[in-house]
Amino acid sequence: MKAMQLYQSPEGVSLHLGRVAEPTPGKAEVLIQVHAAGVTPTELDWYPTTHSKAGAKRENAIPGHEFSGTIVAFGEDVTSFTLGQSVYGMNDWFAEGATAEFCLTIPTSIAPKPATLTHAEAATIPIGALTAWQGLFDHAKLQPKQRVLIHGGAGAVGIFAVQLAHNHGAYVIATASTPTLDLVKQLGADEVIDYKTSRFQDLVHEIDVVFDTVGGETRDLSWPILKPEGRMITIAADAETSTDPRAKESFFIVEPSQTQLIEIAKLLDAGSLKTFVSAAVPLDDAAAAYAKTISQKLGYGKVVITLAD
Fold first, then answer.
1. What are the distances in angstroms from CA 88 to CA 82, 135, 306?
2. How many domains is the chain built from?
C-alpha cells in the first residue's frame, strides 16, 4: 500500500511517499481503509510519533493520528463493528498513523462516523474535539454558568472548545485575531478579544477556567485573572518542561475515547457542533501539505489528506 512516512536525519525530519506492506489485524484490532486523515504538523516532532511505549525507535513511522474511513477487516475478538461500516477515530500517539491507504486501530479508539459529515470533514474532528472535551470536562470540570477563557479560540482545538463550552451553558470568552473574530463569536463566544490589539489581562477577571492552547507568556499572564479556586488547563508543550509546577500540573495530553467520540458525533449530527476543512489534498501531496501547514497561517479549519472516495 502507499503510505506517507517520516524519515529522520541529522538535518531534521522529512516526509516521503513510499510503499509498505498492508497491515493485518490481530485478534483485537480493526483494519481501516482510510478515506481521509487530519494533518497535525506538530506531531512530526513528538517522541511518541517515532518511538514505542517501551522506548524503541520506530523507523519510517506513519503520521496522521486522526482519520475517517471504512472497516475492511477485523480480528476474531472484535464484536462491536461490522465490515463496511464507516467510522472515525484517533489512534494512540505511540501507534502508527493514517496517512496511508490502510491503518490498524482498536475498537475503543473509533466510533461510527457522524452520518451528516463527509469523510474529509470527519477526519478534522477527533484530536481537536477530544482535546476540547477532555480539557473542559475531564480536567477542568467546567460547570454551567462558569466563566471560561479560551486562548486561541479559532485554532484546531479552540474552535471545538468554544462550541462545547457554549453548549454546556458556560459564559465563554475567547481570544482570537481580527480575521476570525466574527467566526468565534458565531460559534458561541459571549466575548471575543483581539489578542493583537488588546491585553486580555486588562479586560477580563474572575475567571473559573482558563483553557490555554498558546502557552508561554499568554499562560503566565492568565494566572492572576483566575478566581482563587479557578483552574488552568493547557495543551501547550512548553508546560511539560516548565519550571513552574503549576504549569506542569495543568498540562494534559489528549487520549482516544470511543465514548466521547460517540457523544461528539451526536452533537455534529444535531447541528450543535461544527467543523471546518481549510484544505483537502491527495496522499501524493501530503508532504507538501504538512510543510504548508507548518509554514503558513491558513486561517481556521484543518488540512486533511484524502485517499479513497
1. 14, 20, 14
2. 2
Instruction: Determine what percent of the chain is predicted with pLDDT higher than 70.
Output: 97
Radius of gyration of the chain (CA): 19
* Domain CATH code at residue 287: 3.90.180.10
Q: What is the pTM of this model?
A: 0.95
Return the pLDDT at 54. Answer: 85
* Closest alpha carbon to 212 in 147, 249, 158, 170: 158
* 52 band by pLDDT with thresholds 50, 70 and 90: confident
Taking the C-alpha atoms of residue 78 and residue 27, their distance in angstroms, rounded to an integer, is 7
Same domain, 244 and 171: yes
* 188 inside domain: yes
Read off φ and ψ for residue 6, nearest 5 degrees.
-100, 125
Structural domain of 119: 2-125+275-306
| Contact call for residues 252 and 140 (beta carbons, < 8 A) | no
How is residue 183 written as a grid cell? 467566526
In the prediction, which pLDDT does 37 show? 97
- C-alpha cell of 68? 475517517
Instruction: Specify if 14 maps to a domain.
Output: yes
